[in-house]
Amino acid sequence: MTYVTDFSDTNDEIDLKSLFGVLRRQFRIIAYATIAVVALAMVYLFSVTPKYTATALIAIEPNRNIMTDAAAELSNATAMSATVDGEIEILKSNDLVKSLVAAQGLVVDEEFGVQLGRMAEFRAMLGFEVEQKQDPERAVLGVVNRVKNAISVSRRGRTYLVQLSFTSESPEKAMVLVNALAQHYIESQVQKKIDSTLIARDIISARASQAKEELEFAENGVEGFLADFTAQYIDQTNRPELLSLEAEISQRNLSISQLEASLTASASGLQSRDWASLDSQILSDASRNLISQRDKLNAQLDQPDDADLDLETLKAELAKLDEQIAASTVDDLSATRRNISAFRTERDEFEQNLRGEVLNSDLPPGALTDLYQLQQEGVIARSQYQNLLQRLRQLDSMAELQVSDASLVSSALEPTSASFPNRRLTLALGMVLGLMLGTGLGLLNEFVIGGVVSEDQLADLLKVPSAVGIPALSEEKDPKSIASAVINAPMSGFAESFRQLKHALESQMARKKPIDDGQGRVILVTSAVPFEGKTTSSTSLARTLALAGNRVVIVDMDLRKPSISERIGVEPNDSLLRYLSKELDFEALGKAYGEEKETGLSYLVGGGRAKMPTDALIGSPRAKKVFEVLREGFDYVIIDSAPVLPVVDALYLAPFVDAVVMAVRFASTAQRDAVRAYQRISAELPDDVSFVPMLTLEEGQRRRAYYYGGYYHGYGQSEET
Length: 721
Prior knowledge:
This protein is an alpha/beta fold and 721 residues long. The protein has 26 helices and 14 strands. It has helices spanning 16-25, 27-47, 70-73, 77-91, 94-104, 118-125, 136-149, 171-237, 240-272, 285-301, 311-359, 365-398, 423-449, 455-462, 479-483, 485-488, 493-512, 534-547, 564-568, 575-580, 586-589, 614-618, 621-633, 649-653, 671-682, 710-715, and strands at 5-6, 52-60, 151-155, 161-168, 406-410, 468-470, 472-473, 521-527, 552-556, 594-595, 602-604, 636-640, 659-665, 690-696. Strands 6-14-13-8-12-9-11-10 form an 8-stranded mixed beta sheet, sandwiched between helices. A 4-stranded antiparallel beta sheet has the order 3-4-2-5. Helix 5 crosses helix 7 (136-149), helix 8 packs antiparallel against helix 12 (365-398) and helix 9 packs antiparallel against helix 11. The longest helix is centred in the first third of the chain and has 67 residues, at 171-237. The radius of gyration is 61 Å and the shape is rod-shaped.
């Protein structure tokens, strides 16, 4: 027969093989966690409301603003890229979203509109009448935030294309709103350009008015300077030609003044049809004749007693004359205006001649400098005024010819599939999260909550010098065959591990409790809970000691569930139980001993069920006498005891022993159970008693419910019950 051993790695590092072993042992936890998380993900997918995303594509072209000089400034790629990024932020702005909310009436929309508070929703669910009391500004702000959260704006790489998306529970609504948002953005961009142009126009218009005043002031300054300087120069020189020109200028000014006065009076008389107030100096002969004829007709109308007069005819002729006088007067006024203009032209010519004569004369240097400065200021003021007027006309044209820098290159279509939730991604994430959660729980169960996985971990957990690992026999499942491995496969790792256990016990007992009186050593083999490989280990340890030439006896003191007879292949015997129950004397107990031919191992197996609590039997003087006799007749007495936590039997055996071996199943026994069992039994042990924990990998099943109730219930009753 070939035995394959599986030693656990005692190094601190966990290799790949050990990791796969952990995952295999914790497969159920990982599988259950994965299934639970995937199930929750599926419940979420079926319960959540699907949402649809419609996408439009907008092209941003900063250089489309060809009506202004700013187009040339954006020829730099970096500046244009920054402009595109800025437009993306504008698409996310609250003002644009507010305009969309107002235009589409989203305040009363079921999905994005004003919503009840949590308390109000709870009251509505209970059937109470809910009165909506909410600050309008806060309500609108909530709508804007919900709409804003549904909008997504992103740039396609480093291009000038911007992807605008809108997510809604309705595919049609998503399409309508994203297209409306794109259109609002384009319209708002145009309107902002128009507004900025009009603002610039108003600023330049105000500046043009100021420039006009400055120009008038400059020109008046030149005229005033020349007038004052010319008058002063004529007074000083009294030159005849200058005096003659000055006289001509004065005469023209006088004529202009007279004609303007007559023109004003005659224009007023023409408006009121008061022909008498017309100035005869500016009237032509034709006008004066018409006025004379009208006076004669008026004189005839003043004679109402004359029977030969036709009043209607006279009134008609008088009205006709009024129209003729008015037309003739208009012509006369136009002629007067032409005369005034001619007089002004002549006056200006005389003034130019006069100033030319004065300026061509020998003038002091200071006067020429002042005149040149005034003239240059006038030229500069005129140039600025002309530039502002030109710019003002351009802005007036631009306000009506603005175009947007953005264009909708691809309108959104109604989406046919939901964008949220992503079923495949959600299930995949659920699977991954389930595996991660299951793996984490498995590792937590393996290394913290669950069992022990190495001898070092067991020694550190119980705070003892060392622990011994007992590997599994992968080809054996029968407990009897496993217990026989130290005989049938003495060179196997399984047999070697019990030799290591033997050495550890001998070393500790030699240090702690040397015995020179020829007395044998009593070794108690127990476990924290059932199904830890305790009985198989006690049988294997006893056979290992016997094969080494020692006189060894194994005693089945697990009175609740004796199983040594099964391990060594003999019939059960209730003599020990009956002796402890005072049904047999000590001499009769001697007949219950047996001995193996292969190893020379003596055994005192158990059987049957006690009629009284087993702790009373184990703690009795009869039990003490058994141990005293066994010490005298054997080198080693191996006691197979009940587990520590379910029952108290092992605690009553502790004072009689020299060493304790506690079996702990690999990755199965809970760490807290191992610690509690060690604390409980060590409290009953004298200081000179050795303690060696044993990590077993024997296959088996755990029945946690059997720890405390089942173990006692199964074998704690009397035979009659």
